Amino acid sequence: MRKTLLIILLIIPGLFADQFDIPHISVTGTSTIEVIPNQMLWHLSVETRGMDLESVAKDHLEKVSGVITFLKTNKIKKDSIQTSRMQFRENWVYKNNTRLKEGYFTSTTVTFSLENLDLYSEIWFGLSRLKDVSVNYVSFNHTQRIKYQNEARKKALIAAKNKANEMAEVMDVIVGEPLIIKDDTYETEPARGGLMSNTVSVRGLSESSGESLAPGTITIQMRVSVVFRLISTSK
Questions:
Q1: How far is CA 136 from CA 71, 106, 110, 153, in A?
Q2: Where a domain ends, among 141, 156, 180?
Q3: What are the pLDDT digits (tens) for 41-77?
Q4: In what order do the strands lie in the sheet with 24-35?
Q5: What does pTM read for this prediction?
Q6: CB 151 within 8 A of CB 157
């Protein structure tokens, strides 16, 4: 797998300065690794409307069960399928500036992960055939994200240390032991890409339309802040 690495270094004057009475230097290091995703996280919605609540609830359970059965049949791992945000309520609509009740509405969110991206088209068109099922969005991720995060964190620490040494050399001092090491990384969601907002938008597509998936790359970035002791070289 090819990946590119970008090292970004920032100096933070005065970071943690009030915590020490000894000479010190504060730096940050940022390491960014770009990797080709090998996992897709799908987010579906299943909706049902009708006039009788009991019938709506029953039909809805059958639709959700149908989605789960379809996913299992198409080699989606059982433990990666999750249902959430189940709800039913009165279905209110506006007609001629008047709020009217039109039966009931039920919905369920279904999420699952797809690690074999070659199955993308098969899953895509299969879902488009299921009644009242929509794909809200898909996120691209990597199954070894933690491994790359650890790798990027180490490189960020090395970058911070190298920068501190370069600055200290100019000032004719030596970098000593680290006094503070802090992970400043902010958690981010996997890269999101829109698929289809509703089933109608894909029904007109041809299943032999050729390549239709371009996952690109996802960025895994780690940032650290480090405070080093400074040692004078003067005698």
A1: 16, 16, 10, 33
A2: 141
A3: 999 999 999 999 899 999 999 999 999 999 999 999 9
A4: 4-11, 24-35, 218-232, 173-183
A5: 0.69
A6: no
